[in-house]
Design goal:
252 residues; alpha/beta; UDP-N-acetylmuramoyl-L-alanine:D-glutamate ligase; six-stranded parallel beta sheet; 9 helices; globular; Carbohydrate kinase PfkB domain-containing protein; Ribokinase-like; PfkB_dom
């Protein structure tokens, strides 16, 4: 688990002023008050040693990805990734956590559901319509490491022209209820690969209206988001109580 995720979870713990001991109840989005709700970027990481990193050419990189997907390694190489790093760290610190997002029903989705359940994290699922660009499966990110210990990330989101849930302009009522019944909302820039900016803004507005703390980690997507939808990003930044930024991200 990354130190960044653990540090962010510690900040969240301080923000919600939670005693450092897990309660027996698990949030189910039906009235219980969660400490932290996370949004989007539910992902399985597959860590794999490769003889060389994928090419930068998009067509060649896509071919490389298709080859990886055709013969995935067993579960020993799988990890809960993305926003799960923060959510699991927060749960281990004693916070009651619920995560909002899409998980498929294929083996990767079953693996991720099992890990989150084991860690005491409830999942409020957002359904996704199957389209020509998306088959409804769980997001998988390939973490590729070459013999020189250089690494690269590769996923289908590298090639998507639009967010996966591009018909969802606003979060469904169940998801909004989960946010309202939480003390804090945490999300990162990769959520924009799944959700339209308007849907993410609706989540932030919902949290803000309920008086909940908002944590936003723009990450590597921050710079491109600023170019694509500056007004929405500025609104989200304004409503965020805590921004998680690297030194380079502050400058850019």
């Amino acid at each position: 688990m990354s130190s960044t995720a653990a540090g962010a979870a510690s900040l969240a713990a301080a923000a919600v002023d939670k005693p450092w001991r897990r309660q027996a109840a698990v949030v189910c989005g039906c009235g219980s008050k969660a400490d932290v709700a996370t949004l989007g970027n539910l992902c399985v990481d597959i860590v794999l040693d490769v003889p060389c990193l994928p090419p930068s050419n998009p067509a060649a990189k896509l071919k490389f990805l298709r080859h990886l997907e055709s013969c995935p390694p067993d579960e020993s190489a799988w990890e809960a990734g993305g926003i799960c790093n923060f959510t699991i760290a927060a749960a281990r610190l004693g916070l009651e956590c619920v995560t909002i997002g899409h998980i498929g029903s294929e083996p990767f989705g079953k693996f991720l559901s099992r890990i989150l359940d084991k860690e005491g994290v409830d999942v409020a699922r957002i359904s996704a319509d199957v389209t020509s660009d998306f088959d409804g499966s769980t997001l998988v990110c390939w973490v590729l490491v070459d013999p020189e210990h250089q690494h690269a990330f590769c996923s289908r989101f590298d090639f998507n022209k639009a967010p996966v849930l591009d018909k969802m302009h606003k979060l469904p009522p169940k998801a909004e209820s989960v946010i309202q019944n939480s003390k804090a909302l945490h999300f990162n820039g990769f959520a924009f690969d799944e959700l339209l900016p308007s849907a993410i803004l609706s989540a932030v507005d919902c949290a803000h209206a309920a008086g909940n703390a908002v944590f936003f980690d723009p990450g590597p997507r921050g710079e491109s988001l600023f170019r694509q939808d500056r007004s929405t990003l500025e609104r989200i930044l304004t409503l965020s109580d805590v921004l998680l930024l690297t030194a380079d991200e502050v400058v850019t």
